[in-house]
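INTERNAL AUDIT FORM
Audit reference: QA-55
Scope: verify that the stored structure record matches its stored sequence.
Auditor: D.O.
Record contents follow.
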Amino acid sequence: MALLNFRKREKTGFTPANGQVEAFLKDYSIEVMPRTAEKVEDFRDLLPAGTRVYIAHIEGTPIEDMVATAKRINAEGYPVMPHFPARIIKDQKTLADWIARYQGEANVEQALLLAGGVTTPHGDFHSSMQLLETGEFDKAGFKRLHVAGHPEGNRDIDPDGSMKNVDDALRWKQKFNETTDAEMALATQFAFDAKPIIEWADNLAAAGITLPIHIGIAGPAKLQTLIKFAIACGVGPSLKVLQKRAMDVTKLLLPYEPTDVVAELAAHKAANPDFNISHVHFFPLGGIKTNATWAIANGGASTTPANQQG
């Protein structure tokens, strides 16, 4: 049974009420894990053609499962971008092996490089910058490399709550961008309040960091689920948006939808075309089907091959 017949929905001529949101959601991407991907009968019933699908690599997931998931999703017509978490990669030999497997078995040519949520590194690497320095991705001819961005900081990187180390890393990545043939961009942690996101993005531009930003947005989910993930992932100031909602009894039991944050960002982008947020990246915390349904209802489409976008 199809979970959601996107192709049928596409023929209805449904027109979203907010053209700014529709434009902002164009070429959005979404994240899955092998265990969540297994629950999807066919991604073509959920996602527009060309949607970039990130595959999250959680500690303990065998590389064989990651590659098999990438191969399956790629075969259904979607460019896949697996995570390469530095702290669970033992050494350069392991990194080269992973790259070779992804390329040889799943036709992968994109990667998201990040430190990973592991406190103690499993081997030689502790940061995405070290992975880039190996030269393995350039040697393999990867066309696109994304690196992490943190609109509200990251306590693992800056325990004092500042943005110093995060910002230093972004400056390094901006400089690396000048040395690689791969297209680079920032893929960020999710946040719930547009204003701090806009301020962060503008500050990056002012500091000369011009990498396109793919802003992380949490998909529709139960409020309690989002609060749990937000605390676990270290989401900071915008967590107050959820906490305020939780205090409103009339909204407590209603599912959260990212309508407000997306609409505000979309309006800002429409008014400021040079705004450096170029794409939306969804974290489907309430389920892939739920997220896909919301995106389609709001005009989200990926009609241009995602690996050709910024």
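Auditor finding: record pair retrieved intact. DSSP finds 14 helices and eight strands in the chain.
Action required: none
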